Amino acid sequence: MFSPEGPSLRELAVQALSSVERGYDLLAPKFDRTPFRTPDAVLDAVGSALRRTGPYGAGLDLCCGTGAGVGVLAGVCRERVTGVDFSAGMLDVARQQVTPTGPPVSWVRADARALPFAPAFDLVVSFGAFGHFLPRELPGLFAQVRSVLRPGGCFAFPVVAPPRPGSPGYWMLLGFDTVMRVRNALWRPPFVMYYRAFRLGDVRRELTGAGFRVELQALPEFGRRPDGSPRVRLVMARLPDRPRRPR
């Protein structure tokens, strides 16, 4: 799962016993050589889907990490692109290695649960970050996203179909989440990273409650499961346009 240039077992253990922020600061120099980075195939597929609905004005990559998603935004946004993350180490790597062509790019250190922006964005994306939020945090998180979007703005992120119960993938994710829960029961500070906590049905309900109109688009690049359902979907949560004033 890890390349020879990736983190050692000892480095991963130190990260896992740290806070989420400190853990990612430590992992940042080698993060892109781990399976935690969003694969290029997913980034490319999301970029293709957004190009079909764009272009957009200003874009925000929420929990941007080392900046892989900023390249997606740079391809569909015309005004500017911003990456926001609470790990200073991840942002340092992003600043050094992300040089997309297109609109100007800026980096901001902040918590996604308390975003320091006015309603200044037309598109917000996020890749692979939602396992770091507990289900009870979703209403506040989605309210924060809404607060930084302009009328008619869009919040987009990919969701992979969960593995079938009893499959190897199912047991792997269940085992990982169990280990994390035991770790957090025995060690402080907690390290929130639960792959099975972000459920599409709950997400749709919370997005709707936050005022979004939710659409699901299959990403055809990843095909379908034996039951015919898409392997990967793109959630497109849109805000209503500003009401027109009567003449």
TrEMBL record:
<keyword id="KW-0489">Methyltransferase</keyword>
<feature type="domain" description="Methyltransferase">
    <location>
        <begin position="60"/>
        <end position="153"/>
    </location>
</feature>
<dbReference type="Pfam" id="PF13649">
    <property type="entry name" value="Methyltransf_25"/>
</dbReference>
<dbReference type="GO" id="GO:0032259">
    <property type="term" value="P:methylation"/>
</dbReference>
<protein>
    <submittedName>
        <fullName>SAM-dependent methyltransferase</fullName>
    </submittedName>
</protein>
<dbReference type="InterPro" id="IPR029063">
    <property type="entry name" value="SAM-dependent_MTases_sf"/>
</dbReference>
<dbReference type="GO" id="GO:0008168">
    <property type="term" value="F:methyltransferase activity"/>
</dbReference>
<keyword id="KW-0808">Transferase</keyword>
<dbReference type="InterPro" id="IPR041698">
    <property type="entry name" value="Methyltransf_25"/>
</dbReference>
